[in-house]
Amino acid sequence: MAEKRMTFLKKLMEFCGINPDRLRVRWVSSSEASEFVEEISTFVEDIKKTGPNPLKAKEAA
Amino acid sequence: MSQKIRQYVHQLLSEGKIKAFLGLREENGHIMPHLFCEPQELEQISLGDRKEPGDARYPLNQLLIRLAREHPDDTFAVLTRGCDERGLKELFKWNQLNEERVVPVGVGCPDDLARACECEKPFPDCLIDGPQGQKADSEKVARIDGMDLEGRLKFWMGEFDRCIKCFGCRNVCPMCFCNECSIEEESLVGKGEIPPDNPTFHLIRAVHMVGRCIDCGLCEEACPADIPLRTLYKKVADIVSEELGYRTGYSIEEKSPFNIIGG
Questions:
Q1: Nearest CA to B175 among B199, B200, B205?
Q2: Is the pTM of this model over 0.80?
C-alpha cells in the first residue's frame, strides 16, 4: 500500500510539473547500514544532477 | 422534463413513504434548494435549469446530511444526478447517511451538460427522468498531460496563485464532512498569507479528495478565482483508478483505498 501511495504521489507531482525523481522510497532494514548509505549517497548525487527545486526559486524571488 | 419527477415524488409523499423531498424550487427567477413537505408544493419543482441545463446546482447531499442528523428516524427523497448518486454511495459507506433513510430521485443530464462536465457517467442508476447520456473523456486533463514538466508547473502555479483562500471549494463540497480540516491546519499551511503556500495548499486538498471527489464540479463553480480544481481532481481520480483500481462512487461495498492503513 505504501508503495502504491508513493506511485500515486509521483504521478501527481508529475501532473503538477514537479520532477517525480525528487521523491524516492526504498525499504532498508536497520541491519543494512551499507545499503542505507549507498541509497542516500546515490539519491544526493541524483538530486544534485536534477538541480535546484523550481519551487525554491519562486520562494527566493 | 420535470413532470415525471413531479409525479414520482407526489406518489412518494402521498403514500407516506417519505417525510419530504429535498430538491430545487424556482421562485421569482431564482433557483434554490427547497424541502418539499406537501404534494401541492410540487408545482414549483425545478431541475436547476436557468439559462442552460443544470446551470443552477447546489450541494443537496450536504443539506441532506444536516437534515438527516436532525431527523434520524425520517426518510427523505433527494434530487439525484449521476454525480450526486456517486456521492450518496460514498456517504453511505462513510456512515454520513443511512441508505435505508434515503430515496434518490434520479435525473439524467442532457448531453451539453454532460459534455461541459466531461462526466464519466452523466446519469444515476435510479433514473426516473432525463437521458442516459454518453461518457465524455476529459480534454482538459489531456491538455495538461500534453505539456512538459516546466509548462505544467508554470500553468498550475499561475492558477494556484490566484487563490484568495476563501475555502469556497471546501465549503461547497458535498463530500467534505470532516470536523477538522487539514487545509486549516497551521502546521501544514501558514495562516494569514494570500496566496497560500502553493502548491501545498491545493495539493493537500487534492490528495484528500481521493475516495471522496465524485466529480460534481461544484468546487470549480464556486471558485471566485476560476482555478480549474475539477481538472486537478479528475486527474487524481484517474491516477487512483490506474494504480489502485478504485473509482469513487461506483461500488456500494468497496471502500476507498486510502481508508486502509497498511495492507
A1: B205
A2: yes
